[in-house]
Amino acid sequence: MFPLRRNRRLRTNAAIRGLIRENSITANDFLVPLFVVEGKGVKEEIPSMPNYYRHSLDTLVDELKLLWSLGLRSVLLFVKVPDNLKDNKGTEALNPEGLMQRAIKTIKNTCPDMIVMTDVALDPYSSFGHDGIVEDGKIINDDTVEVLAEMSVSHAEAGADFVAPSDMMDGRILSIREALEDENFTDVGIMSYSAKYASAFYGPFRDALDSAPGFGDKKTYQMDPANRFEALRETEMDIDEGADIVMVKPGMAYLDIVRDVKNEFDVPVAVYQVSGEYAMIKAAAEKGWLNHDQVMMESMMAFKRAGADMIASYFAKDVIKLLS
Ligand SMILES: NCc1[nH]cc(CCC(=O)O)c1CC(=O)O
Ligand SMILES: [Mg+2]
């Protein structure tokens, strides 16, 4: 008898393919990154991120209502800080009336049940465009961690549900957790960018926030793309220090790391499909070289298949619109 098994039987039509499908995508899967700028009536497209925008607080309100109506329930906030407010210590990051703090309040006033996660790192505030305080051309770990902890408390005071440290300083999760507990923000969570690689895929994001490093690169704090086991060490430490959710970043080129982290630990795992991944798909689709929607959905399935519990993606809205 030939053949003993015919695997194609389970692919015969859409109904049987649906029946045996192992992964699916819903609005619950997404964190929506949002870029916020000063001003009024601003909705400016980011040149290297087609169809993605920086919003001033007033237009952000409309965007939030749209996200909410689509069933999207959590946002990841980034702010673009004017040059004159940048310094080496990220002083503006602690301003209770700063753009981030106002953005958090605006969102909570518009959609009180939207989960607000805030990016915690110095780079948008840094005159050097680095994620930490610079001394003699070096990024100083422990002094930076102190600022990150204060910054986290400031975001919590403004109403953030989660802080999301994306800086890759050592020990920052513990310091942030302690600072939040000291101030009685026991319910404010931490989503740690635990395995964050020194990646060239962040290029368009740095355009969006005007936050590219002014000298050197981020290789003394972000991870070497050559390394796999180091991601597990980083993640384990962040969990021990109190991270509620851990993240792997970037996404598509790091699916092996997502799977490793998911297999090894029992906390929720997030993956970040970063700006460069978005830009690649958009650019190829614009040229007619790839089918935009199909490639987008395939990338989402890949994240789920790799074990991601949630996906931060600039495609979140497009995906949900396509599904509904
Ligand atoms: N620390 C800031 C930060 N938070 C998220 C990203 C990248 C996100 C993206 O590319 O979409 C970056 C840039 C960087 O580390 O240089
Ligand atoms: Mg670490």
Automatic annotation (TrEMBL):
Question: One GO molecular-function annotation for this sequence?
Answer: porphobilinogen synthase activity
The biological pathway it contributes to is: Porphyrin-containing compound metabolism; protoporphyrin-IX biosynthesis; coproporphyrinogen-III from 5-aminolevulinate: step 1/4
Q: What is the lineage of its organism?
A: Bacteria, Pseudomonadati, Bacteroidota, Flavobacteriia, Flavobacteriales
The protein in question is named Delta-aminolevulinic acid dehydratase
Catalytic residues at: 196 (schiff-base intermediate with substrate), 249 (schiff-base intermediate with substrate)
Q: Which InterPro entries match?
A: ALAD, ALAD_AS, Aldolase_TIM
Residues bound to Mg(2+): 234
Please report which protein family the annotation says this sequence is part of.
Belongs to the ALAD family.
Gene3D superfamilies documented for this protein: Aldolase class I
Q: Which NCBIfam families match?
A: PRK09283.1 (NF006762)
The species is Kordia algicida OT-1
Assembly and interaction partners: Homooctamer.
One GO term under biological process is: protoporphyrinogen IX biosynthetic process
